[in-house]
Amino acid sequence: MIRIVEVGPRDGLQNEGTPIPTSEKLAFIERLYRAGLREIEATSFVSPKWVPQLGDAESLWPGLPEGPLYSALVPNAKGLERALALGVERIALFTAASDAFTQRNLNMTVDQSLDAFGEVARVFRESTPSGWIRGYVSTAFECPYAGRIEPAKTIWVAERLLELGVDEVSLGDTIGVAAPGEVRALAKLALVVAPLEKWAWHFHDTRGTAIANVSAALDLGFRAFDSSAGGLGGCPYAPGAGGNVATEDLVYFLERSGMPTGVDLESLAQASLPILSLLGSAPRSKAQMAVLATRSTQ
Description:
TIM Barrel
């Protein structure tokens, strides 16, 4: 069974400067659910000072439509406190395989971030024994500041997260540089450490390789992938370039390859349009544009 984790409402919007009203975010999430998406990362309990776009987490969370499995990114102990106050039962933590990256983004080394998140995970487990934790490893292939990352370093960080008790590790091609051969190499190392069900992949389409990378992971048996409706989200290190792999492109590829997703592509193609309009952005997904073009000629 294929798992698609929709990250558009969080990862897709977090870097957008145009404020999106909470009501529009909730309507977006409702459309995603009605299109068939069942796992949605809805927001982040990050400081509004650093990510104003997600400063409405407290007002958004209680309004989420029933049905999907929702998760939220929790950047630190304060964020966890806010999440627990709302009864959040699925959280995501994030670090990277590059000290240069964590220093820029978290103001700490990779080791320090793992220590900090170890405490967050411990407190979460004590308060929510049946809860679920995801761990993100950014810059799994390359860092914009330090260059290529050795696969062994990425796997070392992932293994540390698993030792902290995370239920799943999502390996991220943060700047969208990886090619399928690199994915296969990292994937084989990952399977030495933990079984398939412990892993997800977070590909960016900055250089047009995301779907090829999905295919490489599928060939090795992996079945969990992150994506963002409409291709929302950019790469701040490559201005003007694409960011997250579009959910529409992922769904089309999987369905065309004979792997059912449970997602209605036509409904999905419509889901992000109001948000894209508010952002003043055109659709970025090729599959989405194809569906919309077909509808316009009917």
